[in-house]
Amino acid sequence: MKKIGFMGMGLMGFPMAVNILKGVGEPILGFDVIAEKREKFVECGGISTDNPMDVYASCDIIFTSLPNHAVIKEVIEGAIKNCRPGTIIVDTSSTAPNIVKDLYEKAKAANMYLLDSPISGGEPGAKAGTLAVMTGGEKEIFDEVKTLLHMIGVPVYTGPSTTGSIAKLANNIIGGAYLVAMSEGYAFAAKAGIDPELLFNATKSGFIGGPMYENKIPKLVNRDFEPGARIAVHRKDIINAKHLAHEIGVDLPMTDVVLHVMDWMDDNGMINEDQIAMVKYYEKKMDTFVEKKEK
Q1: Most buried residue, 46, 69, 84, 154, by most Cβ within 10 Å?
Q2: Catalytic residue (one of 3, 22, 106, 168)
Q3: Strand ranges (DSSP E) for 65-213?
Q4: DSSP for residue 132
Q5: Nearest CA-CA partner of 117 in 82, 79, 81, 148
Q6: Could you tell me if 13 and 6 are in contact, meaning their C-beta atoms sit under 8 angstroms apart?
Q7: 216-252 pLDDT, tens per residue?
Q8: What is the pTM of this model?
Q9: HSE on the CB side for 88, CA within 13 Å?
Q10: Position 37 pLDDT exceeds 80
């Protein structure tokens, strides 16, 4: 069996790595810059290293889940430079299409394969292994790793390289608008005197209900802004979407509103809170406060 490595075991990466570890039924090699993450991975039955060269030197399939473009480029270019020909790199990070294209060409020149395979579903989906997995690249390479992708969620082949990344941008355009709409709606209801917990119970079985609604609104009702997914990470994708929209000559008016709210959160020191904390923008604008009533 080919040896598997996982690089970047953060909020999303760690549960994905653990699910792959359980799925293959034998140790895989995990790397993270944070020692605590490596120790936890060992406790789950994995093997850890504090040196990425160990992953490059020994693994045939490398998964990455990384926080920003600088780190993504550093890690994947390190793999392209140091891995064996034929190595498959599966990037589950949210990576801009232009960066994916550049890294894909570099990997191809080194006789390696890079799949852009971003995910959606937040920390709950990562833990449950139910993530949406959008994968671009060579179809035959997707087919080769599809069994592993099924261990983290529901993989769909989106087409050639960069299409997975573009699918993720569309996903986050829609998700961003939904989150801002939730925030606006609940601030509006609070201002009008409705208990947000009652509003949630009254609406969750209707058309606006669903996994995101049922994950985010209880956090809002309980004012739990500990991030299951950070605004900062989502904002990065919104900016990437704006750049691509400019390249292809289209406007994204709803996305402009989302970015405006996210920028306000950034300006006010709340960019690393959970996405549903964007309700604070509307609380400020409407002079209200969203909290459930004591019983």
Answers
A1: 46
A2: 168
A3: 88-91, 113-116, 119-120, 131-136, 153-159
A4: E
A5: 148
A6: yes
A7: 999 999 999 999 889 999 999 999 999 999 999 999 9
A8: 0.93
A9: 23
A10: yes
Q: How far apart are CA 173 and CA 126, in angstroms?
A: 20
What tokens appear for 181 in the block? Answer: 């709409």
Locus of tokens 């989302």:
258
| 3-state SS, residue 113 | strand
Closest CA to 113 of 123, 124, 104, 122: 104
Check if 139 is active-site: no
Rounded CA-CA distance 143/83 in Å is: 21
Phi–psi pair at 112, nearest 5 degrees: -125, 175
Strand pairing class (29-31; 4-7): parallel
Where are the extended beta strands (E) located within 122-244? 131-136, 153-159
257: its two tokens: 């509103």
Tokens 């799925």 identify what position?
Answer: 23
| Structure-block tokens of residue 231 | 């605004």
Report which of 69, 67, 75, 71 is spatially closest to residue 5, judged by C-alpha positions: 75
Strand 131-136 vs strand 119-120: parallel, antiparallel, or unpaired?
Answer: antiparallel
